[in-house]
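WP5 quarterly update. Target: beta-N-acetylhexosaminidase. Source organism: Arcicella rosea. Length: 369 aa.
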Amino acid sequence: MAKFSLLLFISFCATLWNSLLAQSKIDSLLPTRGFCISAPKPQKVDDFVKFIQEELAPRQVNTLILRVDYNYQFESHPELRDPEALSKKDVKKLVSVCKKNNIRIIPQINLLGHQSWATTTTNLLKVYPEFDETPAVKMPEKYVWPNPDGLYCKSYCPLHPTVHQVVFALMDEICDVFETNAFHAGMDEVFYIGDDKCPRCSGRDKAELFAGEVNKIRNRLALKNRKLWIWGDRLIDGKTTGIGMWEGSFNNTHKAIDLIAKDITICDWHYERPDQTAVYFAMKGFDVITCPWRMPKFAVIQTQDMIKFRQSSTATMKPHFQGMMQTVWTGAESFLDEFYGRNTNKTVEENSATNCFKAMFTEINQQTK
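Structure tokens (predicted):
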């Protein structure tokens, strides 16, 4: 009996050792293996928990960014809640399943830009219109692009004297409830900044305005030892690189890259081409994560590139190439319906978030063999 028990113990130790070696190998290959999606609605939390347990965890996803925005029952500013919003109990379900599976959970609230979408002003400017960087630009009845106002999404004014009292309270509360040491502030596609008609921002350098807001947010988080994550597009010169006005900047905010703190993590998204700007961010001293969306063939190339960057870099540069993160730009419910084939009336196209997600993590898995 003792001999049998010893054999079982040896077998257990061998299994554990092999598991630790496998985990060490994939962590070395890509330290960050992420997934970014909107937070589910309250009635779909259990469905999403199941997805985390059965789909993210087996793929060894270790970072989950949830785009929460106002889908939470904020106590600091209840006037900003969505009509149907996650409760603290809902959030704790998400936190619990992520802890169980060693997944770092990072909430996002869009700050600075993305304060409107199409014809709708989102909650912050709806409740506090005085924060609007461009109050003279009225929301259209029917949205088209391009338009005479250059309206893509509204921004709040980063120099408004009371805007940070509100947004910092939201940041602190959402980080506390998610029990996290990081926060994603969005900050992508900021077209309205330093507007000529803004009484505070007019005539100011747009790069300095952008950097000032990034650093303010970063410094607030640092008070509780939390790190800031942002999208990287506003830090790329869209004209010089030819990357364009969406994945790069046409209003000179790219110069802010030399003005912001180096401990900010950059989520470098490219959806139409596998541009290798991760190298640029790493050379500037930032940790960087490459982010695909719906092009499976590009996600595979981007994964191979990130692994190559880590393998061929100096000891100083290697840690900056942090890994990969799949992004999803529909609601969590729509993605899960697509992923599980629930909508039988709609064919999943080859270029879809579902197929991109599967292709990226299949490539990661093959690279570890």
